[in-house]
Amino acid sequence: MLITLKEEAPKKEREALLLWLVSCGLHPQLSQLDQMPIIGIEKNLPEELNRELRSNPIVVDLIETSLPYKMVSRAVKNTPTVIQIGDVEIGGDEITIIAGPCAIESEEQLVQTALGLKKNGVKILRASAFKPRSSPYSFQGMGVEGLKIHKRAKEKHGLLIETEVMDPRDVAITAEHVDILRVGARNMQNFELLKELGKCNKPVILKRGISATIEEWLLSAEYIMAHGNHRVILCERGIRTFETATRSTLDLSSIAIVKQLTHLPIIVDPSHAAGRSDIIPALSRGAIATGADGLLIEVHYKPKESRCDQRQALSLDEFHAIATDIEKVAKVMGKKV
Ligand code: PEP
Ligand code: MN
């Protein structure tokens, strides 16, 4: 159940209400949705407790739901959430393309890639400083040094920047350096990380875990929201199946289902789904035609020199062709790029 509170409800009275709920044996989480304070509780409550709650002057409404995730659900908000970041709006009538290299390698690499992408209308540059690699012997990313390079390069290219965070201890420093934080597929259920991101004031891209169901994915989004951060963007990046022709199988059906279940925006990462550059244009068109709000694509100014995920890295020319295609599909969907 969700309990919505008056925006002006004094802190003391909110705390008293939380303490009362705890004394009833519950585990309430105080958060907010579009400025409205909101308390989440696992279950719907019996009528006598509901009556008590309704008589509390700071309570606006009780929203009952049997769904395990609550704040992300359309039961609480039936209009799409639009996330504003600088002059970009994710989840509205615009398709947002986030693009850039897999990893931060140097300032030159970031600036050159970013300037090429900017010419194609990209407003957000992706690049990771902390890399979750399957092998402990692979390049692990530049770490905090990489974050500094990302921030410094921004002064030259002027785009918004995003990056992955893997460890709850890195959330604060990462949030100081970038505009958007990303949770990778392997960390979708790193609950300590999700809780920490709930306390952070930057938007979060939450990737779907490699073997996660849609419900588990939405519950992970609920973690971030229940801990106070309502700016969550879901990202479908493919799931593990028996198929070996691609790195993962892009689950386009999740876009349509997520749109029914939640008000949160959803973008698609065709690069990690495919694991190969040749089918990224087709997957990108498919994602936008299925209703995705945007794309997350790996592009490198010199793909052959990419230090990771080289097989799926697109060149700036290849990206240009995709951007042109996407504009056409977006138009059919009544959206602009
Ligand atoms: C990435 O986007 O750099 C990445 C590692 O992707 P994923 O977490 O989806 O594998
Ligand atoms: Mn990658």
Key words describing this protein structure:
single chain; 337 residues; Alpha-Beta Plaits; TIM Barrel; 2 domains; eight-stranded parallel β-barrel; globular; binds phosphoenolpyruvate; binds manganese (II) ion
Topology:
Layout: E1 2-5, H1 11-23, E2 29-33, E3 36-40, H2 47-54, E4 59-63, E5 83-85, E6 88-90, E7 96-100, H3 107-119, E8 124-126, H4 144-157, E9 160-164, H5 171-177, E10 180-183, H6 191-198, E11 204-207, H7 214-226, E12 232-236, H8 253-261, E13 266-268, H9 270-274, H10 280-290, E14 294-298, H11 316-332
Helix pairs in contact: 3-4, 6-7, 10-11
The structure holds phosphoenolpyruvate and manganese (II) ion.
Structure description:
The strands form three sheets. Strands 7-8-9-10-11-12-13-14 form an eight-stranded parallel barrel, surrounded by six helices. A four-stranded antiparallel beta sheet has the order 2-3-1-4, covered by helices on one side. The chain has helices at residues 11-23, 47-54, 107-119, 144-157, 171-177, 191-198, 214-226, 253-261, 270-274, 280-290, 316-332, and strands at residues 2-5, 29-33, 36-40, 59-63, 83-85, 88-90, 96-100, 124-126, 160-164, 180-183, 204-207, 232-236, 266-268, 294-298. Helix content is 35%, strand content 18%. The chain is built from eleven helices and 14 strands. The chain is globular and about 65 Å long. Helix 6 crosses helix 7. It folds into two domains: 2-63, Alpha-Beta Plaits (2-Layer Sandwich); 83-332, Aldolase class I (TIM Barrel). The chain is of the alpha/beta class and 337 residues long. Phosphoenolpyruvate is lined by residues 102, 128, 132, 164, 184-186, 207, 237, 269, 272.
